[in-house]
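yo

u said u wanted the structure for the complex thing, so here. seqs first:
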Amino acid sequence: MSAQATSKKKAPVEAAVPERLTPALLAFIEEWKPRPGNLIMVLHRVQEAFGYVPRQVAFEVAERLEIPVARVYGVLTFYHLFKLKKPGRNRICVCMGTACYLKGGEDLIFELERELGVGLNVVTPDGEFSVEAVRCIGCCGLAPVMTVNGEVFGHVAKKELPKIIKRFREAACTPPSATT
Amino acid sequence: MFDCEINGIKLQVAPGTTILDAARQVNVKIPTLCYHPDLPAWAACGICVVKVEGSPKMLRACATPVGPGMKIITHDPEIVRVRRTVLELILSTHPNDCLQCPRNGNCELQTLAAEFGIREVPYQKRVRDLPQDDSTPSLILNPSKCINCGRCVLVCQQMQNVWALEFQGRGENVRMAPSADFKLNESPCIKCGQCSAHCPVGAIYERDETRKAWDALEDPDKHCIVQIAPAVRVAIGEAFGLPPGTLLTGKLYAALRRLGFHAVFDTNFGADLTIMEEGTEFVQRFAHGKGALPLITSCCPAWTDYMEKFAPDFTENFSTAKSPHEMVGALSKTYYARKKGLDPAKIFGVSIMPCTAKKYEITRTDEMFSSGHQDIDVVLTTRELARMLKSAGIVFDQLPDEECDLLLGDYTGAGTIFGVTGGVMEAALRTAHHLITGENLGDVRFEQVRGLEGVKEAIIDIEGTQIRIAVAHWMCNIEKVLDRVRKTRADGKEPYYHFIEVMACRGGCVGGGGQPYGATDEIRRRRTAGLYQDDEGSTYRCSHENPHVLKLYQEFLDKPLSKKAHNLLHTHYKSRPQYKANRG
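structre next:
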């Protein structure tokens, strides 16, 4: 019983722990601190590590680089690439470059919104998916194109979407040990 | 110097002169909107475009230096049409609710629309509906009215080094706002109000509290008292068409009585009192080793807010003496109330200040309630007072001069120069000289601390005693002064300075964030000259000679730094982390 009580106590504490700079990121910041253009480089790394730039981490970056928080946010909000909110566990990016747009990229977005029940850049309540519109990803021959967690899907038809979503949703249910 | 030509007029200009400034030399006014002489030109709005012979495109006059032999056309039908389009596009994203706008009558966009004779806007209206930020006691941000000129951001970052405001987002969605969705009050904002003084439109303005003053004046149970800060008397005339720097003390007293105030005091009295307390504090620290050096002045609430947020390692260096208007406030509800047999609960104290941060200061700590009541009930800026006078139908510039109520209103020349950079230092030195030597100065002027230079340093010799001083104003200048002190402190050496004066606004309070709009260095100089004129014309020019201050000590406070003085006239500072609501 006592073990149960401890674990019950522990779980929310763990969940509340904010994202912090990892030792690898700290080392990267130290390396880049004296160089010009360091802020963009650091923010790229942060986003790679967390999938977005958590507020606490943005404040830590400002502190480590000894620059005002406002400068960090000026850069963060200027570039569309940087995300300030945590994306879904599965990140769907629909290409809205010219070719994909003409081939029905927007229809894919409407269908994904309908299928998942949330709009663009909003995470599904279960935390599984988020959909974003992105600029050309460089494979216009496959238009319309979308990526899920970096995996590219070309010539996507609306009717294929439920299957793709299902595949990634089920991948979550598989215990990590079972995956290769 | 080299030759150039503007609209066919030949002239000579110095290298580096912009087309905008060169045009002014030959009495040509090129319209501007984002440009401000306090700030680097950064060519955001495009309304100042001109034609230059040989250039395939129009160039922005604010950011283009004149070249040798350059031939410039500033006005022709095509240029005016381009400017007009720029203006129409801005107006299509602006609410255009001029009649209800705090900037009605002194808005730069409104003025341009009038000058261009805009009667309709041909573009589809697209006003962004963004929420107001009224989180601070001092300032309101109304981003729906913002025209993205960027002045406030440049002011906040480059002039003031505060970095509360930043461009958030890009393109048509850009907003000037605090970072990370924080409200202004949780951001590093120091409430100096320079953003509001530089905003060309009604997107940032002082919190209007004139209603509170009117309500108190209408209430028959209230005994309303008022005081005016030094810098107000040389600036308020601008709101009535008088030249900057016109000294209007007597007319202000008269006008305030006409508004219905029962007693009219002067913050300059508080300034003299501040010098008695702070000067004594300095001598205690300097000559008797009691307390940290350098002593740093704390009259400016934007500066103390800055220190608490950015430089808390200087907390113990701050003078504990309250700012002058807080001293007058505390005494009005104790000393004055007792002398007049008034219930302090019924006294309503109004301070007329050149400053938006003073609105924040009056509830800053429990010590601002030292009389047992809120020592000052409301702070109105110079701009708010001008509106009150106009709405009361007072023909201000024609009023006969009156005297103030001397009990808390008598002042010396030392008190009145508190409104300019270097003034607090000069006033303190005049009295410190007396405290150290027991004698009065022959010539009371300290030219070393005067002028608009960002940091002024001097070594003052008082009969063989050397005092190292620094005077800094306009916040971006303060860090280098503090760093020098930090260095000697880290090295375990004698402090780099003994005494530092800081004012947050350029030029000191004469250039305050609550002053009439349109301040430039020229206007700051003229307001400054007005205060020095007041000083020169004063019977007494040292705070320790103020007969009513001496009387106050005799009858009530005993002596500077007495227990009673400490309870009523002193305060303390502490570290206040920025973005404090965050970091969880």
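Chain A has two domains: 2-78, 90-178. The domain at 90-178 of chain A is CATH 3.40.30.10 (Glutaredoxin).
cya
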